[in-house]
Every structure is written in C-alpha cells, then in structure tokens.
C-alpha cells in the first residue's frame, strides 16, 4: 500500500468527516473508494475515446459504415431471438 497526502479545504474536510461518521467508515476509506471509482470511470472513458478514434480512422480509411436503419433492423432480429450476421 502506498500513502498519499492531499490538502482539502476545511469545508470539504468537514463534509467528508461527517459522511464518514454517518457511514461508520474512515475518511481515508471514503477517499480511497472515491479515487478508485474515479480512476475506473476515467479509464473506461479513455478506452471509449480510443475506440472511437480507431473506428473513425477505419471509416476514413475504408469509407465503410452501417446505417442507422441497417443497425436497427439487425438489432430487431436479435431481439426476436434470431441469430443473424451483423450488417
């Protein structure tokens, strides 16, 4: 485990302490959970951004795309329980 020091303004520190007491958890635990959730969220967001750029680059290179109508029709067949190839 690694230790990290951060500075919080007094009002935020008071809110954190109050919440920690209400949840019967330590302020450190709450901060660790908040940071873990934030990092997980930001990693997912970064992956989505990378995927989006990759797809855009592929579109620019090939010109291939799937229309909204074709995607909707395919999804409708999947919802109906039919296994079909994606457009």
List descriptors.
single chain; 87 residues; mainly alpha; 3 helices
Structural commentary:
With 87 residues, this protein is mainly alpha-helical. It has one domain (10-79). The protein has 3 helices and no strands. It has helices spanning 10-23, 27-62, 68-79. Helix 1 (10-23) crosses helix 2. The longest helix is centred in the middle third of the chain and has 36 residues, at 27-62.
Can you lay out the helices and strands and say which pair or pack?
Blueprint: H1 10-23, H2 27-62, H3 68-79
Helix pairs in contact: 1-2
Short description:
It contains three helices and no strands. The chain has helices at residues 10-23, 27-62, 68-79. The termini are far apart.
Number of helices: 3
Average residue-wise pLDDT: 95
Helix content: over 70%
- The radius of gyration is 23 Å
- The strand count comes to 0
The main pleated sheet reads as: none
Instruction: Give the DSSP E fraction (strand runs of 2 or more residues).
Output: under 5%
Q: Structural class of the helices, strands and pairings?
A: mainly alpha
């Amino acid at each position: 485990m690694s230790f990290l020091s951060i500075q919080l303004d007094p009002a935020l520190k008071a809110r954190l302490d109050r919440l920690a007491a209400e949840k019967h958890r330590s302020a450190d635990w709450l901060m660790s959970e908040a940071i873990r959730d934030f990092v997980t969220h930001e990693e997912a967001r970064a992956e989505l951004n990378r995927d989006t750029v990759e797809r855009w680059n592929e579109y620019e290179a090939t010109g291939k795309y799937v229309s909204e109508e074709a995607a909707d029709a395919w999804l409708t067949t999947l919802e109906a329980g039919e296994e079909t190839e994606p457009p």
